[in-house]
Amino acid sequence: xAGEDGNEMTEDMIEDLVLxxxxxxxxxxxxxxxxxxxxxxxxxxxxxxxxxxxxxxxAAASPVRYALxxxxxxxxxxxxxxxxSLGGVYHSHTRTEAYPSPTDVRxxxxxxxxxxxxxxxxxxxxxxxxxxxxxxxxxxxxxxxxPVVVH
Length: 151
Prior knowledge:
Elements: E1 17-19, H1 21-33, E2 40-46, E3 49-56, H2 70-83, E4 85-93, H3 102-107, E5 114-118, E6 125-132, E7 142-146, E8 148-150
Parallel strand pairs: 1-8, 4-5
Antiparallel strand pairs: 2-3, 2-4, 5-6, 6-7
């Protein structure tokens, strides 16, 4: 698989995603508050790490799908760009494990980690994945897990 620089990327080249405990807690709280529907949002990065969580409305209002509202997404992107860069996209799975569904892969369109908060068991679990596509309009892609470290 090719990385951003066009060179081949391997799984052992994937760096851990360090999540501050407060960010992880805020994501989980948002996801739990949106039940029975999936929740979604964006993460901001400043410097070397994730620095902000931006809970958003699930425009799909569905227990099995999520969609970022385009107007809200544009507003949050502007805030994120002013403060740093996009650090990730997150959503919840209310009844299944934290692993990208075929729909998650098809809808992926950013070169950032995709975090999934599973509410299927307690405590909730957070996993992250890179979804690598030759073209963002592709229906499929390669899924590579990114280790999540909460501190």
